Amino acid sequence: MRKSAFHAGTVTVSTVCAAMCIAAGSALGGVTTLSASMTADNQFTASISTSAGSAGSTFLSGTNWPSTYSGSTDLSAPGTYYLHIRAEDVGRPAMFIGNFSLSGTDATFANGTQNLLTSINPGDWSAALDTYGGTDVGVVDIGPNGTSPWGNYAAMGDARFIWATGSPTPLVAYFTTVITVVPAPGAASLVLLGLAAASKRHR
Asked: Which residues contact 105 (CB under 8 A, 6 or more apart)?
């Protein structure tokens, strides 16, 4: 009888611990959603990666610069992510423009906020000509949203038309910005409190 009672208590503790592990995973990482509205002259591929030098997983692409392309992808764990944009021009002039946002309170772009526009603000975007994580060539400002010949994109707000620096204008550019996702505040304390409660129930 005593053995059966102990077994029942063990099952209870195991169940509580399992639930706390699930809660811990959620609290420590949660799910951050990256949303994008963008386009490029003439075409682009947008991907998310945990490496500065590899493309990662594509979540959005477009081949018609007058159109605005919108999409999103989930960042399911704390860590450093890289938003990579490969833009290709098939006949100058060239441009890339975009408006990006993050959900939740525990993720930020390189500018320290949850919203990022295309711009030449220091640290916001880097550009290379050969590959992601390649030699930084700098980013050039082409003009505000609405500049001819592209006109205005309603979803882009105050974003700027940008491209990679080079002479003549490069036909392919690799743009990157960094996203940081941190554990939710108090997550570790929540897990410890839950485990303490489970231990009390066992005793």
From this structure: none
Residues 164-202 have pLDDT tens digits of 999 999 999 999 999 999 987 654 444 444 444 444 554
103: Cα separation from own chain's centroid: 10
Q: Rounded to two decimals, what is the model's pTM? A: 0.79
CB 35 within 8 A of CB 101: yes
Angle between helices 187-202 and 2-28 (to 10 degrees): 170
Residue ranges, the chain, pLDDT below 70: 1-30, 185-203
Q: Is the peptide bond before 122 cis (omega within 30 degrees of 0)?
A: no
**Residue 21: count of CB within 10 angstroms of its CB:** 13
